[in-house]
Amino acid sequence: MKTVLYNLALLGVLLLCPMLAQANDNDSLKILWIGNSYTYYNNLPALVTKLAAEQGLKLSPTRFLKGGAHLSGHYKNQKLIEALEKGGWDYIVMQEHSSSPAQSTREVVADTYYYAHLLDSLAKKGSPKAQVIYYMTWGHKNGNMQNHKHPDPAYPLDETYEDFQSRLQTTYLEMTYENKAWCSPVGMAWRQVRHKHPGIELYTPDCSHPSFAGSYLAAHCFLATILQRPYSSAMYFELPEETARILQDAAQNAVFSNMRLLGITK
Description:
globular; alpha/beta; six-stranded mixed sheet; 10 helices; disordered N terminus
């Protein structure tokens, strides 16, 4: 219940103010989060920051988050553009709307790839040494929930979870490759947990947003992506230790078994 109330309170704040910034420490790595509710549910940036601190890595997050936002919408946010142009970032995380990367190739090229490249270019121009990380999200629990809103006929290649996840994965890996970026494979780890540990509920009741377990899995995907080394965490928060360990292992396996695909091979 506390988690649900926290999410609702945070949602209200973020809808009123798309950007939330945290004071930057001079000796911290600065990470900019660009996304929507899949990022602010359970305060993913804070989870990653806490887990990173346990491993001796100091991160200072800044957030540009708005419920339901697309990368195209973020590109129209002048405050974000100014932040990218000003630079000084070490990591820049980009998360697209949950269903946009799973639409037809024509729509993905026009709406997702195009704006991902524009934001990526701005990010690297302002912060030449920054590492852009694309946040590969997960398929809706029972297939694309946006299909009923889609022009008839609905796109048939994302109607099941598996098809939806495959479309998301291809899009995010293509964006990673084309922009010479990294990818945090949350969706790949998510699929692994769904298959091997179906008793772990990664979704909230809306069948789309992450439960705390889902956000914990995502946080470890980002930590493994940034650290690029195996680690163990004793921070379980509200999760049972066994569940937390399963999620940690799934995240690290998704990263370390796919380094070349994810663009993070040294």
